[in-house]
Design brief:
- This protein is α+β, with helices and mostly antiparallel strands.
- The protein has 3 domains: 11-207 and 268-351, no CATH class; 211-261, no CATH class; 352-421, no CATH class.
- Helix content is 46%, strand content 13%.
- The protein has helices at residues 3-20, 47-61, 83-89, 98-112, 183-186, 188-207, 228-244, 265-268, 270-285, 300-330, 353-365, 371-377, 398-420, 429-439, and strands at 65-70, 76-78, 114-121, 129-134, 140-143, 148-153, 158-163, 168-171, 213-216, 257-260, 339-343.
- The longest helix has 31 residues, at 300-330.
Length: 440
């Protein structure tokens, strides 16, 4: 390792240590604002944080990311023969599957504020990408003045200075539009409260409550007077040790008195405080409380609206951010309208069979999808006549409705004449013969 490389490594280490201390200033590289946890997973020990992070990471990673190409008819279809199709949907590199890759990328966005992906271009096939490398955290420094990325990732074998369009930069909320900020950095105070509440709960269950109070006496207690302060201190230390050891009933020397000062859980509203931290953390991550099993005021309507809000307000902005960055860095400006990256959002309803069936029925009845379109998506064989679009008029085809419309108008014009025509009663032959005989 050369002297320049050693200096660069030591520079990164100093920056890392500076960003990891509490109350430190904003670090553009790490994306931290006095982070509650930098370089560790202590924040994930809070149950609500763990649930919110895993919920966002796994839901986004479960959506197939498709590489689309526009045909002559102007319709985009998935290019399954392209190398990008395999990299985006199966295996971006040798170390990650597509699910793990995008899950960890979203994890870095939320926890560290920035995720850097290096597309390693092929030396043999011009214009083809061999793999996507998710760079290790702390190995990338972004120079916003020169618009360059300095990378020193020995684990993935990526080193050098790269231009803006050579690194895929996925960032969280940014104050300057160039450096992402971690959600944990903003939620540091709330996480401190939640972590303190967890520790206090542990102490309460471990020792039956942390007893605090004042030891006092009258003048009849032996040893008090000239050595009053020291004797009281010894008595207080003895009581604290015995309470911490688990003793419930203790004795005091002489006439000494113990006045408890600690408040009970009801007085402190301890449980309500813990409920507040759950909802406050959910606000930072944009996750409805029902998704972290906080079912305080849950009903069918609120659960349905929470699901819609989660998809449209939380997941969709992150999906668009990833799609736009891939499009911006991997597609040339002259060909931007021919290719497209898009998550298949229909997979969001993969396990909700009722909503899925209702969505499929509405798209078929409105003519957006055909029966065979959905059968292909469900991996079912096509049926005869399933390629013809249907409308909601008793699910008849457009061709049959146009063919029937002139006939129906003709029948409507002749109908009044048929109704005004008198109806003669039918008389059988035997009855007609009897009438003739009567007349004769």
């Amino acid at each position: 390792m050369g002297s320049f490389t050693k200096k660069l490594v030591s520079f990164f280490e100093r920056r890392e240590k500076a960003g990891s201390s509490k109350g430190s200033a904003f670090s553009p590289r790490t994306g931290q604002l006095g982070s509650f946890v930098t370089g560790s997973y202590e924040a994930l020990c809070v149950a609500t944080v763990y649930r919110c992070v895993t919920l966002l990471c796994t839901n986004i990673a479960a959506l197939p990311l498709r590489y689309l190409v526009r045909g002559r008819d102007g319709v985009y279809s998935e290019d399954v023969k392209s190398r990008l199709h395999y990299l985006l949907t199966v295996q971006p590199n040798q170390d990650y599957s597509a699910f793990d890759f995008w899950s960890h990328a979203v994890f870095q966005i939320l926890m560290y504020g920035n995720a850097y992906i290096y597309p390693r271009w092929s030396r043999m096939d011009v214009g083809e990408i061999d793999e996507f490398v998710l760079l290790t955290r702390g190995t990338v420094s972004y120079d916003s003045v020169n618009a360059t990325y300095t990378v020193l990732d020995s684990e993935n074998g990526v080193k050098g200075v790269f231009a803006e369009n050579e690194i895929i930069h996925l960032k969280n909320l940014s104050l300057d539009g160039k450096h992402g900020l971690s959600v944990i950095g903003f939620a540091r105070q709330t996480l401190d409260i939640a972590s303190t509440g967890d520790k206090e709960t542990f102490n309460r269950f471990a020792y039956g409550g942390n007893v605090r109070g004042i030891v006092s006496n009258d003048t009849s207690v032996r040893g008090f007077g000239e050595y009053q302060d020291s004797e009281l201190q010894k008595t207080a230390e003895n009581l604290d040790y015995r309470f911490q050891s688990g003793e419930k009933i203790v004795s005091l020397p002489g006439q000494a008195q113990f006045n408890q000062l600690s408040l009970s859980s009801v007085d402190m509203e301890f449980l309500n405080t813990r409920k507040f931290t759950v909802r406050d953390i959910c606000r930072f991550f944009g996750v409805p409380p029902t998704f972290v099993f906080d079912d305080t005021s849950l009903n069918y309507k609120s659960a349905e609206m929470a699901n819609v809000a989660f998809l449209s307000q939380t997941l969709n902005p992150i999906l668009i951010k990833i799609e736009n960055e891939l499009h911006r860095k991997l597609i040339a400006p002259s060909r931007c309208c021919k290719y497209r990256f898009q998550f298949d959002r229909r997979s969001l309803y993969a396990s909700d069979l009722s909503s899925r069936a209702d969505y499929q029925n509405k798209t078929i009845s409105s003519g957006i999808y055909t029966i065979n379109d959905w059968r292909k998506y469900e991996n079912l064989p096509e049926v005869e006549g399933g390629d013809e679009p249907l409308v909601s008029a008793n699910l008849k085809s457009l061709g049959s409705l146009l063919a029937e419309s002139p006939a129906s108008e003709g029948q409507g014009a002749e109908a009044p004449e048929a109704e005004n025509k008198p109806i003669e009663p039918e008389i059988e032959d035997d009855e007609k013969g009897q009438d003739k005989d009567t007349e004769a």
